[in-house]
Specification:
11 strands; single chain; two-stranded antiparallel ribbon; 246 residues
Length: 246
Amino acid sequence: MSNTIILIPSRMSAERLPGKPLLEINNLPIISHVVKRGQETNLGEVIVCAEDKEIVRAVEKNGGNAILTSNLHRNGTERIYEGINKLKINNLDYVISLQGDEPLIRPKDIIKLYDLMVKNNSDIGTLASNIQEKSMYKNENVVKVITEKKLENNNFVRAINFSRTSLSLDNPNIYHHIGIYCYRIPILKKFVNLKQTKNEIENRLEQLRAMDNNLKIYVALAESSPIGVDTNEDYLALKKIMEYKS
């Protein structure tokens, strides 16, 4: 297995739902649920890269590892890059960046992404799922990805575009983007040293910086679509689902 690490960028100051990493489900903070999903993959060490001491303390209290990072980062990718530099781990091949607000992401989907990255020697990879409800096409909280061709169980397809805004239902290759990335280490370094693009800033999507600079992003099909926590309504819905399952 290639030398891989899983990093989870996290901060308390989310615009729509401040403090969400520490909101509890089954008496465990959301961020700690995500740590557990990463650990269940057995792909490598799992570490939270946090902007706030409260997150570091909560993660460590619940048996996870975390480090404190700067509060000046513009996105999660810049935060995990600082994390790699602070950790001083040699000979890393890949880093997986997990979204800290998707505690239902399936470990086997993370493993699938990693396996396809290695098999195809790709630079950047991510996940997407089928869109289940038409309302998602117009929901700006749901990031959509358009791919070159149809996603199937074991293919890895190049992304053409990412968007928050409404997309035409006539395009057959539109999927719900899931907030996870896998980078080859040299490409991550290249990405964070690129200037933000107008496209990225206007759409509030950091992956567009990569595409604007001809860095190819490949997409694998996830079996399920995890619920991200963007609003209090999302949190209550997720809490209900996870506490019912338990």
